[in-house]
UniProtKB/TrEMBL annotation:
UniProt-recorded name of the protein: Sorbose reductase sou1
GO MF annotation terms: oxidoreductase activity, acting on NAD(P)H, oxygen as acceptor; oxidoreductase activity, acting on the CH-OH group of donors, NAD or NADP as acceptor
Protein's UniProt keywords contain Metal-binding: no
Keywords, alphabetical: NADP, Oxidoreductase
InterPro entries: NAD(P)-bd_dom_sf, Sc_DH/Rdtase_CS, SDR_fam
One matching Pfam family: adh_short_C2
Lineage of the species this protein comes from: Eukaryota, Fungi, Dikarya, Basidiomycota, Agaricomycotina
Length: 339
């Protein structure tokens, strides 16, 4: 579970940045623009990234006089010059992930959410990024308002980003909603449709908005869909049939899209957080403090997670460091799934 009673939608209302640089850097996500497995060599190891071999292969090819420099953060984990779209990013885990992508070197991270104007939390993070020292890229956070359940509007927003930036490399579909406890046999049809409209349709439309631009610019890319431990098992003591159903759908959506988009060098994966202490979770626990003990006891680490504990998985999946990972689900749950 990652969000409590929150609907994040996106309408076609763009808040322009103060300044946009027109430069268009050519960048390959991880391999040259050609069909996957187009030669025997490609089938053995895949084409090398633009910066050449890394790791042991780099060490073995280097001559004794070649300077030895680390590449793991300079190249594999770097998101230098990349452009990202993150839904549900006005606050919570969406904003946390957007910040991580910016810190990793992205040129611009477009943050989508329902409010017409960003909130105070977003404004503070945007200012923090603007004055951050040591970034490997421009690292702009740009706010966009819109409705993730509106497919046509989402596609237009993706096109707008593509026109402005000349590329699209990373997508994180983090918008979601969780309704209150409702017994499955009495679950109202209208409420069930509302949850699936945001958590399933909205995730697909967000992925489409970014993925269509990735195909257009032919740089490959990474799409990350935010699922949940609730997609793999029910939450003990919580009748959340609509939420659990929607997150299971997201897991299968990612696997299906991963298989379809691999030839275009677009990877699709999911992150399944456990109970995470977002600001909305905190408000929920204030009303029902007894749940903290229950949720904490559901994993071997004996606590719920922090939003920042999703940063590493986000950057890894966004970057070349995960170039052979697609159709996978990354569980960040404190071991919840192990019990």
């Amino acid at each position: 579970m990652t969000m409590i009673s929150r609907v994040v939608r996106v309408r076609a209302c763009y808040v322009p940045p103060l300044a946009l640089k027109p430069g268009r850097a050519h960048f390959s996500s991880s391999v040259p623009a050609r069909a996957a497995g187009s030669s025997a060599k490609d089938r053995l190891s895949g084409p090398l990234p633009p910066y050449g071999p890394v790791g042991v292969a780099r060490a073995l090819q280097a001559s004794p006089s070649t300077p030895a420099k680390p590449t793991i953060f300079e190249h594999e984990f770097s998101l230098a010059d990349r452009v990202a779209l993150v839904s549900g990013a006005n606050r919570g885990i969406g904003l946390e992930m957007a910040l991580a992508i910016a810190e990793a070197g992205a040129r611009a991270v477009y943050c989508l959410d329902l409010p017409k104007a960003p909130g105070e939390e977003f404004a503070k993070v945007k200012a923090y990024v603007a004055r951050m020292e040591g970034k490997k890229g421009e690292g702009r956070l740009e706010y966009m308002s819109g409705d993730v359940t509106d497919q046509e509007a989402m596609w237009k927003l993706g096109e707008e980003i593509g026109k402005r930036e000349g590329r699209m490399d990373v997508c994180v579909a983090a918008a979601g909603v969780l309704k209150g406890d409702t017994p499955c046999l009495d679950y109202p049809a209208k409420q069930f449709k509302e949850v699936l409209a945001v958590n399933v349709n909205g995730v697909l439309f967000t992925a489409q908005a970014a993925g269509r631009q990735m195909v257009k610019f032919d740089n490959g890319g990474s799409i990350i869909l935010i699922a949940s431990i609730s997609g793999s098992g029910a939450n003990q003591g919580h009748p959340w049939v609509s939420y659990n159903t929607s997150k299971s759908a997201v897991l299968q959506m990612a696997r299906s899209m991963a298989c379809e988009l691999a030839p275009q060098r677009i990877r699709v994966n999911t992150i399944s957080p456990g109970y995470i202490n977002t600001s909305m979770t905190h408000q929920f626990l204030q009303k029902r403090p007894e749940l903290l003990e229950r949720w904490s006891s559901n994993n071997p680490m004996g606590r719920i997670g922090r939003p920042d504990e999703l940063r590493g998985a986000t950057v890894w999946l966004s970057s070349d460091a995960s170039s052979f990972c697609t159709g996978s689900d990354i569980l960040v749950s404190g071991g919840h799934h192990a019990w």
